[in-house]
Write a structure and sequence with these properties.
The protein has helices spanning 91-102, 120-132, 149-161, 171-189, 204-215, 221-226, 245-251, 256-262, 269-274, 277-285; strands at 21-25, 33-41, 44-52, 71-76. By secondary structure, it is α+β, with helices and mostly antiparallel strands. The chain has three domains: 21-105, 4-Layer Sandwich (Deoxyribonuclease I, Chain A); 149-189, no CATH class; 199-291, no CATH class. Helix 5 (204-215) packs across helix 10. Zinc ion binds next to loops. This is Endonuclease/exonuclease/phosphatase domain-containing protein. Residues 46-123 form the Endonuclease/exonuclease/phosphatase domain. InterPro entries: Endo/exonu/phosph_ase_sf, Endo/exonuclease/phosphatase, RdDP_mobile_element, RNaseH-like_sf.
Length: 292
């Protein structure tokens, strides 16, 4: 991406010549620098945004159109959050986190410590894509005094310039072996991986609602008041308790009739949020209204 009044820095996306790609402009009113490209992989269109935000600019997250199913956002956000490995969360971290959750995006960095079931669709998508393509996704923390980063970079460049060994294992064989091994390790590290989460069968709008219910990041008073300091208390308008997800789904007298209609029998929270397709649809179609 060309900068008009600066000499270095900026963002750059490289796309292999054999992949159909089309780049487009994202207007951030001179805040973050964003480069975007749509690529097509086997009839699937994938939108990739690459963002660089200097300390003194606004993040401009909402300038990106990430409504499509297949969106990848990479970049240097200059933001800290415990969600991606920092020991604290700063203001920008909060901003990125809320934007990420609002848009049902998964944080790649969180894959390593994936207790979060909501990352399953990202991991499944990556697994399925890796059947036909080689994917290398690497998170590189910047400004963190990571020892050896520069050295590794230098060595990688030197190594790439050397004459390569002629191994008898073909590229494709090596790929298959690595893939099988990684898959095995991943399954061992994620014993609770839910392969058939009905979440995947929901519409994207429904997924957003379920995601907000599961994570507690939503527009209910409890989250607004305790996390974002909006409003005067976390109380529900029924005045019988804090307006949390469990309150609305299980206890709030204002939703009692609706609940009885949706779930005639006593149904635990886990069933409503992680259960059958029907159950999850009920949670977002009717009771979901305050979460949109
Ligand atoms: Zn209530």
């Amino acid at each position: 991406m060309d900068r008009e009044r600066a000499h270095k820095g900026g963002v750059l996306l490289l796309v292999r010549n054999s992949i159909p790609a089309k780049d487009f402009q994202v207007d951030t009113k001179e805040q973050s620098e964003i480069q975007a490209v749509k690529i097509t992989v086997e009839d699937t269109e994938i939108t990739i945004h690459n963002l660089y935000c200097p300390q003194d600019k606004e993040l401009s997250l909402h300038c990106m159109d990430i409504a499509s199913e297949n969106s990848i956002v990479v970049g240097d956000f200059n933001s800290h959050s415990t969600c991606w490995g920092y020991d604290h969360t700063d203001r920008r971290g909060d901003e990125v986190e809320d934007w990420q959750i609002d848009n049902a995006l998964s944080v790649l960095q969180a894959l390593k410590s994936s207790k979060n079931k909501d990352l399953n669709d990202l991991t499944s998508a990556l697994t399925s894509l890796s059947q036909t393509h080689t994917i290398a996704l690497q998170w590189i923390p910047s400004h963190c005094n990571v020892f050896g980063n520069e050295t590794a970079d230098l060595l990688a460049k030197k190594a790439a310039a050397l004459q390569q060994n002629d191994y008898t294992t073909t590229y494709s064989e090596a790929k298959t072996i690595i893939h099988a091994q990684q898959h095995e390790e991943w399954l061992q590290e994620h014993p609770n991986h839910v392969q058939n989460d009905a979440y995947h069968a929901l519409t994207r709008a429904e997924q957003v609602v379920i995601f907000r219910l599961r994570t507690g990041h939503n527009r209910l008073n409890h989250h607004l008041y305790t996390k974002l300091h909006i409003g005067t208390s976390d109380q529900c308008t029924c005045q019988t308790g804090g307006q949390t997800v469990i309150h609305v789904l299980q206890h709030c007298p204002m939703y009692e009739n609706l609940r009885n209609l949706m779930w005639p029998q006593d149904t635990p929270m886990a069933q409503k949020l992680y259960g059958s397709l029907d159950s999850q649809q009920h949670s977002c179609q009717r009771l979901g209204c305050p979460f949109e």
